[in-house]
Specification:
It contains 15 helices and two strands. It is mainly alpha-helical. Among the domains are: 78 residues, no CATH class; 160 residues, MetI-like fold, CATH 1.10.3720.10.
Length: 343
């Protein structure tokens, strides 16, 4: 009778054997590539930026002149009960590092504290006004993209069209959004009566605010995009595409635009912050609800918890949008994906 040969690999009672050196090295390289992937790097970078924003908001309260309790109360009448509630909420009787850890824990759980001026929790107040601001920012971003792409594609490489577009872009980029909003109100609301003057009453009420906020940004991006398209049209591949019988407009839209989009996308990610900050002023000009009114009221009333919450929330939105723009690079330019894969 023959007995099977039992090896460490087949013996169930044997201790696990380490993998071969080549397999271990391959797994290590795979983990390094995963950690260095653009998505993971951008997520980690965004998390660090948010952590820095939260930390700066805490430091701002600590280093501000005066008593922290008085600073957080704002214009509200101070009472012993309110002071005791603030000390308990912020842990002012504890060491500073514990105050910071408690503050960081509260923010990560969506607890922005309480507004003692308005006598309400800050999180529902700010988040309740976030949607109108995001709607205006998204509409302005659409105006920016349509205006910049349309103007660049139609005028690139055409002398008179380029000169005219450059003049229009210079005027729009130099015009403050609130002044442009006032002019649009005067022409299209007061004179022609085509759009409502103020409020949030459907699509018609967002057209003028989106134009006043998005045209200036579109002028800046359009200028960069047009130069990129003109440079792409001088590349050898453009001559090859023309030899295939493809028309000038199709060449610009299907080929040159993609090659020229990367610098414009980089600039668009940077201008996202401009749209968010400009929305605060634009909402005031057009009497729209949103974070603009909440921010102005909080600054006038010295309502520090609301101000800090808006600052952190704005940083969060900016990080999310800028991360999305950075990842869009990989879709626009496949060479970036190949370069990342070789590393």
């Amino acid at each position: 009778m023959t007995h099977p040969i039992i090896t460490p690999a087949t013996d169930p009672g044997a201790p696990p054997q380490p993998p071969p050196p080549a397999a271990s090295a391959s797994a290590h390289v795979s983990r390094l590539r995963w950690l260095r992937s653009p998505v993971i790097v951008r997520v980690i970078t965004g998390a660090l930026v948010l952590w820095a924003a939260i930390t700066l908001s805490f430091v701002a309260v600590q280093v501000a002149p005066g008593n922290i309790v008085d600073l957080l109360i704002g214009e509200q009448l101070s009472t012993p009960a309110i002071e005791a509630a603030i000390r308990e909420e912020w842990g002012l009787d504890e060491p500073v590092y514990l105050q910071y850890l408690h503050y960081l824990w509260r923010i990560l759980h969506g607890n922005f504290g309480r507004s003692y001026v308005l006598n309400t929790d800050v999180a529902p107040l700010v988040i309740g006004q976030l949607l109108p601001t995001l709607e205006l920012t998204a509409a302005a971003f659409v105006v920016t993209i349509v205006f910049s792409v349309g103007l660049a594609v139609l005028t690139a490489g055409r002398r008179w069209g380029r000169r005219t577009a450059s003049g229009v872009e210079l005027v729009l980029a130099s015009t403050p959004s609130f002044w442009l909003g006032i002019m649009l109100l005067f022409v299209f609301s007061f004179t022609l009566k085509l759009f409502p003057v103020a409020g949030d009453r459907g699509f018609a009420s967002i057209v003028l605010p989106a134009l006043s906020l998005g045209l200036a940004q579109g002028a800046v991006i359009g200028r960069v995009l047009r130069k990129g398209i003109e440079h792409s049209l001088d590349e050898p591949y453009a001559l090859t595409v023309r030899s295939w019988g493809i028309g000038a407009l199709a060449l610009r839209v299907r080929h040159a635009l993609r090659h020229a989009a990367l610098p414009a996308v980089t600039l668009a990610g940077w201008l996202v912050g401009g749209l968010l900050s400009g929305a605060v002023i634009t909402e005031q000009v057009f009497g729209r609800p949103g974070l603009g009114k909440v921010t102005v009221d909080a600054v006038l009333a010295k309502d520090m918890p609301v101000i800090l919450a808006i600052a952190i929330l704005s940083a969060t939105i900016y990080v999310v949008l800028s991360t999305a723009v950075d990842l869009l690079y990989l879709l626009i330019d496949p060479r970036l994906r190949e370069r990342r894969a070789r590393r």
